[in-house]
Design brief:
By secondary structure, the chain is mainly α. The chain has five helices and no strands. The two termini are 22 Å apart.
Length: 94
């Protein structure tokens, strides 16, 4: 802890106190994942329709995966998307 009298708790502490930490963390992770997939699709000139076809899923399911606010996506779906763009999914507990 610093000696600065104006320093309070961290933002993570605030979110935990308000009961928002888990939800905010999930949304932040999903935003990063959606951004990474979208960037890879653009880099590879891969349309949503073609991406969904290669994933063997619907375009609506892909839209849910790429929506940064929708966190209820299965690991299987994320893994299939990562494989299509030539990447691997890595999950770890810290």
């Amino acid at each position: 802890m610093t000696n600065n009298p104006y320093t309070g708790s961290s933002f993570d502490d605030f979110l935990q106190e308000e009961g928002l930490y888990t939800e905010c963390t999930a949304i932040a992770i999903k935003r990063v994942l959606a951004r990474q997939l979208t960037e890879e699709m653009k880099r590879q000139n891969l349309t949503k329709t073609e991406m969904a076809k290669q994933m063997k899923t619907s375009r609506a399911q892909l839209d849910r995966l790429l929506d940064p606010e929708k966190t209820g996506v299965s690991i299987e779906t994320i893994t299939r998307a990562a494989t299509v763009v030539g990447r691997q999914l890595r999950i770890e507990l810290v």
